[in-house]
Amino acid sequence: MERPVITNEQRIEISIRIAKLVCSDIKWNAWADKWLSGEDRTKSSAAAHYAAVCFTDKDEFNKKLIELIEMVCKK
Predict the structure, then answer these.
(1) Which of 4, 29, 34, 56 is at a distance of 20 to 30 A from 19, taking alpha carbons?
(2) Closest CA to 51 of 38, 63, 35, 67
(3) Contact assessment for residue 21 and residue 64, using Cβ atoms and an 8 Å cutoff
(4) What is the distance of C-alpha 4 from the center of its chain?
């Protein structure tokens, strides 16, 4: 059985969905929703809303990432 290949777009989507679990910034979440819906995927928009600005608590991000991975692996 071949290992699945995750595209760059899928990696971005996964990252955005994880970020949305812990990011409470209204503007960033509005941009993220537009990206996920396909409404706005421009490079200039993405650069202006880099996800890292939302994570002041990296431990919280890592915890949410592990929770998401465990949830996906159980399916």
Answers:
(1) 4
(2) 35
(3) yes
(4) 19
